[in-house]
Design a protein that fits this description.
Radius of gyration: 20 Å
Structural class: mainly alpha
Order of helices and strands: HHHHHHHH
Oligomer: single chain
Distance between the termini: 45 Å
């Protein structure tokens, strides 16, 4: 087995193990940590007292996306349990509030966080991850879009 293949297998298993052990509180801490706090704060809507504020909602959504279950019910139930453990008042187990909060997440905040965290990960990547001294880029051609300009229309009608 090639050394890169062994390393990739170990890393894949590490990511899977980490995903199995993720929780919204860990993501919330990352989003409000020193590396991302200024970027997140600048993109948040005007604060309003809500059961699911934007940073908590985003953290819950990330947990939901990585969970084996993937349901709104599971992430809302986990949030309710954590609130009770922290001594906070209980909230409804109905998923409607969370789903509405998730729909209100500002798209610019999410896209900025994706770019920033991607840059952080790429910046911390080991040199042996590069191919012939160059960073590797993977592109899914089904999701790449071009501006609808006259030049593009001429080349790609």
């Amino acid at each position: 087995m090639h050394p890169n293949q062994r390393a990739a297998t170990r890393q894949r298993q590490c990511v899977l193990d980490h995903a199995d052990n993720t929780n919204a509180q860990g993501f919330f801490s990352l989003l409000t940590g020193p590396q991302l706090l200024d970027r997140v704060a600048g993109l948040l809507p005007e604060p309003r007292e809500r059961m699911f504020p934007p940073t908590e909602t985003l953290a819950m959504f990330m947990t939901q996306a990585l969970s084996a279950d993937g349901s709104c019910r599971q992430v809302v139930d986990e949030a309710a349990v954590k609130r009770l453990i922290a001594g906070l008042p209980a909230h409804s187990a109905n998923t409607s509030g969370y789903c509405q909060a998730r729909a209100r997440l500002p798209l610019p905040m999410i896209s900025t966080l994706v770019r920033d965290t991607g840059a952080m990960v790429a910046g911390d990547a080991a040199l042996w991850w590069q191919w012939q001294g160059r960073p590797v880029r993977l592109v899914d051609g089904a999701t790449v879009t071009l501006a609808d300009t006259e030049d593009h229309q001429a080349k790609y009608p």
